[in-house]
Amino acid sequence: MSAHDTSPARRRAWVAIGIALGVLGWAPSALACPSCLSGDEDTRIAYYGTTLLLIAVPLLFLGVILGWLRRAARRAETRTQAGERSILPQR
Amino acid sequence: MAAPDLTAPEPTPLVPSGLLGIAIFVAAEAMFFAGLISAYWVLRTQAMGWPPFDQPRLPVAVTGVNTGVLFLSGLAMHRALRTATGRRQHLARWLIATALLGALFLAVQGFEWIRLIGFGLTTASSLYGATFYTLVGAHALHVVAALAVLLWVTALAVRRPEEPDATALRVCHVYWLFVVGVWPVIYGLVYLA
User: Fold this and answer.
1) Which of A4, A8, A48, A50 has the greatest number of C-beta atoms within 10 Å?
2) Is this prediction's pTM over 0.80?
3) ipTM for this prediction
4) Rounded Cα distance, B139 and B178, in Å
5) Partners of residue A32 in chain B, C-beta under 8 Å
């Protein structure tokens, strides 16, 4: 399809884009989170507090699980090394 | 192609699959409660009055004592796990003590709920009631699930006291401690704050 192509499919696509842009321009803006624009101090604290909570909880659990697996790996490695040492000939 | 060495010992997993599974499950559950707590917190700060003047006040003292009962069940569960590596004949006893304390917690919660519903606090009475029953009810459902798992582990321990299923016991221990650990956060936020 060239840049000057005026096929019906291309024209329909341009009309659809035009309608979509028109609707977007006509529609009033919607606020996703009513807490964001609240002037109330308690609401803002709650908004920031819950944001931090929802960021911190998964990171905390990820850290705990990874730390636990790392410790288990180290313990297994130590055990393996101890086993290898025990079969070495004693001097 | 060389034939596989069938005499080689099977590699042992770094951590038991059951334990890894419960760790991931508890992480997901923690996110679930974090979401509920966040919703409760934001809705509460946006309300004109909390609790609304026409709604009953929550039983702070009775639930405080009940929190102690749940704490005791956590201690009993911890003791059960320690017993599993020592005097195994006491394992079932500690597990039964944990289950009884957990059941007592649920019974008191249920009794208080019946009273609150009688005083007019229902899920439909206000946003206060809806968030209260959602948050506290979600926790109660988790205690019921933990109790079911605990009864199954207890039955195993009673049937084979000399060979307890260590992974099942540790899975139950982790889940029970999670259920006990999340309650003070909910109690502090819903009843005390």
Assistant:
1) A50
2) no
3) 0.73
4) 11
5) none
